[in-house]
Write a structure and sequence with these properties.
The protein is α/β, with parallel strands linked by helices. The chain folds into 2 domains: 18-33 and 259-334, Aspartate Aminotransferase, domain 1; 36-256, Aspartate Aminotransferase, domain 2. It has helices at 36-45, 49-52, 57-68, 81-92, 107-115, 132-137, 161-172, 228-234, 245-256, 258-279, 327-334, and strands spanning 23-24, 75-78, 98-103, 119-124, 143-149, 177-181, 204-209, 222-226, 285-286, 292-295, 304-305, 307-309, 318-322. A 7-stranded mixed sheet has the order 2-8-7-6-5-3-4, with helices on both faces. Strands 9-10-13-12 form a 4-stranded antiparallel sheet, covered by helices on one side. It is globular and about 55 Å long.
């Protein structure tokens, strides 16, 4: 059998799917049901033709462009933000080059690096802090892409606008692309999106998703914002139809009723503050700008699913505890 032998190095782990009867606080998903009003509006808008006919992807691109206040020609769509990331690797990464990111990072950065047979340079945290200067020092003529999560997954801290601008400037000197993955930015207290300056940057791509703050991981919708030239290059490798008809109707419903989404976001942020303050009285806690915190509390009710992990600078066992939107679940955790 003929195939690309470097794929032998790629290891993929299938996500564990738990019963929907359990409370999932392990994968940054929304734990509470969608608001009845927005769900009803979605079902009201959904037509059988959304399934029977090919989707009007351009309509979705226009919806997102208006929502973000940019041109539709700046928008790249994908079945989840990871699809947009893969498109970026397709367009801008070649064997012999390298990709720079943090250590730890969103696992798919490393997976795609192996799939595309490039070196992934992961810059470790130093003194419990991201090492911006070392990221910049690692940018060379061999660098094709710098991948930055902001807020950073899985640690949960953020890059300042000045730090990102310094990285963008350094990458610009060697014609490297900077990707800023803003999957969790709606949960951040002091993190500034760069989407409004993407049009003016020659080497910047912003990535966003509906999986986290919108709470719709199952709909598989993500998008990129860049200047028009970059978006045009990315369009060369897109799927025939990037997203489905039912997905487009969900995007429309969310945008038209975003005040409901924002209410959920504010609720999660309030619960994050409560959890952090209360757990800190008894356990170690690492605060986060995402919809989780890290804590050394490892015991939870049997119907609550969490994820144990380690932190680079600690020998303790930690739990990345996703923030429940349910006040009942919050209180059970704090009992």
């Amino acid at each position: 059998m003929k195939y690309r032998k470097h794929l032998d190095k790629v290891e993929r782990i299938s996500g564990t799917h738990f019963s929907n009867e359990l409370i999932k606080l392990n994968s940054a998903e929304r734990d509470v049901p969608l608001d009845d009003y927005i769900w009803g509006k979605y079902l009201e808008n959904l037509k059988e033709t959304d399934i029977r006919y090919y989707p009007d992807v351009e309509a979705a691109r226009n919806l997102i462009a208006r929502f973000e206040g940019v041109k539709s020609s700046q928008i790249t769509l994908g079945a989840g933000s990871d699809q947009v990331i893969r498109n970026i690797f397709d367009c801008f990464v070649e064997p012999g080059q390298n990709v720079i990111t943090t250590d730890p990072c969103f696992p798919m950065y490393h997976v795609y690096g192996k799939i595309y047979n490039v070196e992934v340079i992961q810059v470790p945290y130093y003194n419990k802090q991201k090492d911006v200067q070392r990221i910049i020092q690692n940018i060379t003529s061999k660098t094709s892409v710098v991948m930055i999560s902001n807020p950073n997954s899985p640690i949960g801290d953020s890059f300042s606008k000045d730090e990102l601008q310094n990285i963008i400037t350094a990458a610009q000197k060697v014609n490297a692309i900077v990707v800023v993955d803003e999957a969790y930015i709606q949960f951040a207290e002091d993190t500034v999106s760069l989407s409004d300056v993407a049009w003016s940057c020659s080497n910047l791509i912003i990535i966003k998703t509906f999986s986290k703050a919108v709470g719709a991981a199952g709909i598989r919708f993500g998008y990129g914002i860049s200047n028009c030239k970059i978006a045009a290059v990315l369009s060369k490798v897109k799927s025939m139809y990037e997203i489905t008809g039912p997905t487009i109707k969900w995007v429309q419903t969310v945008i038209e009723n975003y005040i409901i989404v924002d209410s959920y976001i504010q609720n999660v942020k309030a619960h994050r503050r409560i959890l952090s303050n209360r757990l800190r009285k008894k356990y170690q806690v690492l605060d986060s700008q995402c919809n989780w915190i890290h804590t050394t509390k490892t015991d939870y009710p049997s119907d609550i699913i969490t994820r144990k992990c380690t932190l680079p600078w600690s020998k303790s066992t930690w739990v990345r505890l996703c923030i429940p939107g349910s006040i009942e679940t919050l209180n059970r955790i704090l009992e």
